[in-house]
Automatic annotation (TrEMBL), chain A:
Species classification: Eukaryota, Metazoa, Chordata, Craniata, Vertebrata
The keyword Cell cycle is annotated on this UniProt entry: no
UniProt GO molecular function: metal ion binding; RNA binding; RNA endonuclease activity; sequence-specific DNA binding
GO biological process: cell differentiation; spermatogenesis
Function text: Acts in combination with TSN as an endonuclease involved in the activation of the RNA-induced silencing complex (RISC). Possible role in spermatogenesis.
Protein name: Translin-associated protein X
Coiled-coil regions, chain positions: 74-101
Chain positions covered by the region annotation Disordered: 1-23
Protein's organism: Oryzias latipes (Japanese rice fish)
Automatic annotation (TrEMBL), chain B:
Gene (UniProt): TSN
Annotated transmembrane regions: none
Family: Belongs to the translin family.
Annotated Gene Ontology cellular component terms: cytoplasm; nucleus
Species assigned in the record: Oryzias latipes (Japanese rice fish)
Biological role: Exhibits both single-stranded and double-stranded endoribonuclease activity. May act as an activator of RNA-induced silencing complex (RISC) by facilitating endonucleolytic cleavage of the siRNA passenger strand.
This protein's UniProt keywords: Cytoplasm, DNA-binding, Endonuclease, Hydrolase, Magnesium, Metal-binding, Nuclease, Nucleus, RNA-binding
Gene Ontology molecular function terms on file: endonuclease activity; hydrolase activity; metal ion binding; RNA binding; sequence-specific DNA binding; single-stranded DNA binding
Binding positions for Mg(2+) per the UniProt entry: E150
A Pfam short name: Translin
Self-association and partners: Ring-shaped heterooctamer of six TSN and two TSNAX subunits, DNA/RNA binding occurs inside the ring.
Alphabetical list of InterPro entries matching this protein: Translin, Translin_C, Translin_fam, Translin_N, Translin_sf
Designated name of the protein: Translin
Length: 282, 227
């Protein structure tokens, strides 16, 4: 506006005309735009709320992952795992809020708002699952835990889905691509876990991890370029992580053979034994 | 479930997704072709000789919109209706173009701003998401903005063709549109970028109006405006 006025008096005419028009608020165009304004604001507000929840989910999930990395250093693993489980339960409640916001909406419309959080959650939950079961959590297992029962049955539209009157079931579906991207991030955590477990003298875990990572890597190679664009980017990082783990295994194998047989047996019995022998050999 | 099984399960999902997208892309290509045909048809209004033919051109364009309707009807069958936004990117652009074309035709016919309902009706789609394949509000607004720059061109060309009244009417129309857009709280998104271009259209038309009024070419309509 200012710039235009600065260009000379030539615009006076147009400005006057505009003032006239803005004065008449009853014009159908302005009335229509007032409706658009509301609609856009509602949409943007919802989007921003989702971004906020997503950020909370990310933060809590990251904390859970850090907590899980401590598993290797503490004597009582079960306690840590329980704490992690508790934290993830909190995250699931937050995802419930996302589901609440998305009730009756097209989840793809707002997908970009919450996808970072969901990926981080997948990463955390699959990390916990791996530590517990040494296997990859499936998409179905993740989704099975994202089912929410709401006591207050407010919306008549949604209550049709609920089995019991008054209580309604709300589900959140992690999309396969979010799952894939979460799993891709998981590999980075597994690499870190592998390296730290070498430091702790745990010889079993690195080999297990490298095998597991290789399986995941093969899986991603199988998917290749057909997946979403981000997958191919993460595949590169995955390859690097795998390389690091394989190098660690190689080093362990080579150096492991230098440890005398009877000491190697000790090594497998307890971690502290390895720490001692490691010092002895090196 | 083993890792391999899991990945092949997901791979199945991904390739199904790819297939749907491929189908959509084919239909959208057809739509783009029709949109180009309509555009070419309407471009002739910028010709000096074209001004008299506006009604007949609009009628022809309306005919072509019937083709658009069938093509969009075809598009609707290619994916589950509740997943509109999953594939939105594929038709977003062409839908904006078609909104522009519909808005342009309606403007040429009646010099009114096309409503969202009218566009939806011309294209044979819905206004609200719940009812099915619909026109996203941002796409509608983007289409209207494309029309604004087309109108600024029309203002210039109508002067060349000796029509001194039309630019004034266009100027009023665009100013009203501009004040409408001012009401919107746009985020830093593509629509916002498009809207930022509107001021240049406003400026261009104002310059035309200025040129006309300083030379007394627009006397007749100006006096009617002062009343």
């Amino acid at each position: 506006m200012k710039k235009r006025e600065g260009e000379g008096s030539s615009r006076k005419n147009g400005d006057a005309a505009r003032e006239q028009d803005t004065g008449s608020c009853s014009s159908p165009v302005v009335a229509a735009f007032k409706v658009f304004q509301q609609e856009l604001d509602t949409k943007h507000d919802k989007y921003e709320r989702l971004v906020k929840i997503s950020r909370d989910i990310t933060i809590e999930s990251k904390r859970t992952i850090f907590l899980l990395h401590r598993v290797a250093n503490v004597p009582n693993t079960e306690e840590v795992l329980k704490e992690a489980e508790l934290k993830l339960e909190g995250v699931r409640q937050k995802i419930g809020q996302v589901a609440e916001e998305l009730r009756g909406e097209d989840i793809h419309q707002f997908h970009r708002a919450f996808t970072p959080g969901i990926q981080e959650y997948v990463e955390a939950v699959s990390f916990l699952h791996y530590i517990r079961h040494r296997s990859l959590i499936s998409l179905e297992e993740i989704n099975a835990r994202l089912v929410y029962m709401r006591a207050e049955g407010g919306d008549p539209k949604a209550s049709a889905e609920g089995p019991a009157p008054g209580a309604q079931v709300l589900t959140f579906h992690v999309t396969p691509s979010d799952y894939l991207l979460g799993v891709a991030d998981l590999t980075g955590e597994l690499m870190r876990m592998c390296i730290s477990s070498v430091g702790n003298g745990d010889i079993d875990t690195p080999f297990q991890l490298s095998q597991f990572l290789r399986q995941i890597h093969d899986g991603f190679s199988y998917i290749g370029n057909t997946g979403p664009y981000e997958v191919s980017k993460k595949l590169h990082t995955l390859r690097q992580s795998l390389g690091k783990v394989e190098d660690a295994c190689y080093a362990l194998h080579v150096r492991g053979s230098e440890i005398p047989k009877h000491m190697l047996a000790d090594v497998f019995c307890s971690r502290t034994a390895l720490l001692d022998s490691d010092e002895g050999v090196a | 479930m083993s890792v391999t099984e899991m990945f092949s399960h997901i791979q199945g999902f991904l390739s199904a997704d790819q297939d749907i997208r491929e189908e959509i892309r084919k239909v959208v290509q057809g739509l783009e072709q029709t949109a180009r045909e309509i555009l070419t048809l309407l471009q002739s209004v910028h010709q000096p000789s074209g001004f008299k033919e506006i009604p007949s051109k609009c009628a022809k364009a309306r005919d072509l919109f019937c083709t658009v309707k069938t093509q969009i009807g075809d598009l609707k069958t290619k994916f589950p209706v509740e997943q509109y936004y999953r594939f939105h990117e594929h038709w977003r652009f062409v839908l904006q173009r078609l909104t522009f074309l519909a808005a342009f035709v309606v403007y040429l016919e009646s010099e009114n701003l096309v409503t969202r309902e009218e566009v939806a009706q011309i294209l044979g789609i819905e206004v609200v998401r719940e009812k099915g394949f619909h026109l996203d509000i941002e796409d509608y607004l983007a289409g209207v903005l494309i029309m604004a720059s087309e109108l600024s061109r029309l203002a210039v060309n109508s002067v060349t063709a000796g029509d001194y009244n039309r630019p004034l009417r266009i100027s009023n129309f665009i100013n009203e549109l501009d004040s409408g857009f001012r009401l919107l709280n746009l985020k830093n998104d593509p629509l916002r970028k498009r809207y930022d271009g509107l001021k240049y259209d406003v400026k261009k038309i104002e310059e035309v109006v200025y040129d006309l009024s300083i030379r007394g070419l627009a006397k007749e309509s100006e006096s009617s405006g002062d009343k």
